[in-house]
Amino acid sequence: MSAAHALPRHLADAVPTGLLVDGEWRPAAGGATFAVEDPATGQVLAEVADAGPADGLDALAAAHAAQPAWRTVAPRERAELLRAVFETLVARTEDLAALITAEGGKPIAESRAEVAYAAEFVRWYSEQAVRINGLTRTAPSGTNRQIVLRRPVGPAFLITPWNFPIAMITRKVAPALAAGCAVVVKPSELTPLTTGVFAEIVRAELERRELPTGVVNVVPTSAAGALTEPLLADPRLRKLSFTGSTEVGRVLLRGAAQNVLRTSMELGGNAPFLVFDDADVPAAVEGAVAAKMRNSGQTCVAANRFLVHERVAAEFTAGLTEAFGRLVVGPGADPATTVGPLIEERAAARVAEVVQQAVDGGARVTVGGDRPSGPGSFYRPTVLTGVDPGARAVREEIFGPVAPVVTFGSEDEGLDLANSTDFGLVAYAYTRDVDRAFRVAERVDAGMVGLNRGMVSDASAPFGGVKQSGIGREGGEAGIEEYLESVYVAL
Ligand code: NAD
């Protein structure tokens, strides 16, 4: 099966639109398909096979069957497979970026950056595959040795969101394969095309090297819950790794409890962006644009609440208003665009509602505050001042190009505001005082802290949250641990 409709011919021919089960692309068992749309135009890009519960179980059976062979493949061979995939991803950057923009709406420059970021996970875990270390020591009593062996946890089910259609996949698939786990991937129903190309790159490389092709299986579906339930109930599955909303994460954790699965949860955020009165304010404005506007504000690490000391609030707000006013809203494929559409109409309508609720509660719009006319799910970059700390814009993950500014008077008050949320993925802080910077890093409830920076993500660093933002870490040395068990041997 291959894609049709509004994709350029050369891309349409390269995009598999079936299910990948046991090394073969095939239609869904019932023959069903679902449509993937371009959020900039609403046009259908392709029809993709719609996996049902039986297809999901076939994919798990294939991963389970491939698992014993895969775990015995030499670490060096696993590393070299990943290295080859990394090189192909880099070589295919333009095709992959065009697809990310087509199905996800991102400005093309951001899509290219996503491919580079995604490829880095593959390179990093190609390097880690040969560095899986156990432990050996003499027991404190001196009576015996303690040896800790490491082994793959087993078949893993990987569920990913739409906001980074390839990076969220490689962040899971690369460490899983490096550790020796076979996988079933369920991409977001909104962005399955990029996943298809990635999966074909891995499948072809496995085949070329005569390695088991059933190691990577992909099941796009329009009915995620129905496909997932039987997998979580099946004892052949040993690991669940999820990136998405906290709400869905909670449902999956309940499902994973049945067979006591190993779980990794990368969930929602509500990142505070603190600007203290000793900050370099122009640098904070620049960092704020980076932390807020990537993917039109649709990232889990998007700065959600701008907590600004009252002495610098006017300068910061004026700078942010001007910077947002300069951004160019449009289709991601236009190289002049800096802010693309939101993922779907529903998302744009929700952002409009959140802004309206803040305005009704007394907030003032200094720039934006509306949707441009014409097709596509666009929303204009917006700054809100005088926002009530109880407003939805402050309490909820906005997931759109809207920056609510709330002021504070002391460091303690700023930190209390920052921590007054159930989430704890990332926090940003701007200050020139190094002692204060460390106090913030030590006291803020977050798994990651950006100090005088609006970007923290790096394939070689442990990414993840505290509180309801998740369990476990992806990236860095920690990421592969999520796919390994320890076996203690006393001798
Ligand atoms: P979502 O939770 O709606 O969907 C995520 C994935 O879960 C999709 O593949 C979806 O099909 C699937 N899903 C939905 N219901 C399911 C069910 N009942 N059973 C199994 N799978 C189900 O999230 P989204 O809208 O795709 O992504 C946005 C969310 O993801 C935001 O909250 C964002 O913060 C979060 N996110 C977190 C990280 C992180 O690393 N912490 C990274 C990116 C996105």
Describe the secondary structure blueprint for this structure:
Layout: H1 9-14, E1 19-21, E2 24-26, E3 33-37, E4 44-49, H2 53-72, H3 75-91, H4 93-104, H5 108-128, E5 135-138, E6 145-152, E7 156-159, H6 167-179, E8 183-186, H7 192-208, E9 216-218, H8 224-232, E10 239-243, H9 246-257, E11 262-266, E12 271-275, H10 281-293, E13 303-309, H11 313-326, H12 345-360, E14 364-367, E15 382-385, H13 392-395, E16 402-408, H14 411-419, E17 426-430, H15 434-443, E18 448-451, E19 470-471, H16 476-481, E20 484-490
Parallel strand pairs: 7-8, 7-10, 8-9, 10-11, 12-13, 12-17, 13-16, 15-16, 17-18
Antiparallel strand pairs: 1-2, 3-4, 5-6, 6-20, 11-19, 14-15
The site of nicotinamide-adenine-dinucleotide (NAD) has 27 residues, from α8 and α9.
Protein described:
The chain has helices at 9-14, 53-72, 75-91, 93-104, 108-128, 167-179, 192-208, 224-232, 246-257, 281-293, 313-326, 345-360, 392-395, 411-419, 434-443, 476-481; strands at residues 19-21, 24-26, 33-37, 44-49, 135-138, 145-152, 156-159, 183-186, 216-218, 239-243, 262-266, 271-275, 303-309, 364-367, 382-385, 402-408, 426-430, 448-451, 470-471, 484-490. With 491 residues, the protein is α/β, with parallel strands linked by helices. It has 2 domains: 9-267 and 469-490, Aldehyde Dehydrogenase, Chain A, domain 1 (3-Layer(aba) Sandwich); 271-458, Aldehyde Dehydrogenase, Chain A, domain 2 (3-Layer(aba) Sandwich), CATH 3.40.309. It has a 7-stranded mixed beta sheet with strand order 14-15-16-13-12-17-18, with helices on both faces. Helix 10 (281-293) crosses helix 11. The longest helix has 21 residues, at 108-128. The termini are far apart. The site of nicotinamide-adenine-dinucleotide has 27 residues, from helix 8 and helix 9. Residues 159-163, 168, 186, 188-189, 224-225, 228, 243-245, 248, 251-252, 266-269, 300, 397, 425, 465, 470 line the site of nicotinamide-adenine-dinucleotide.
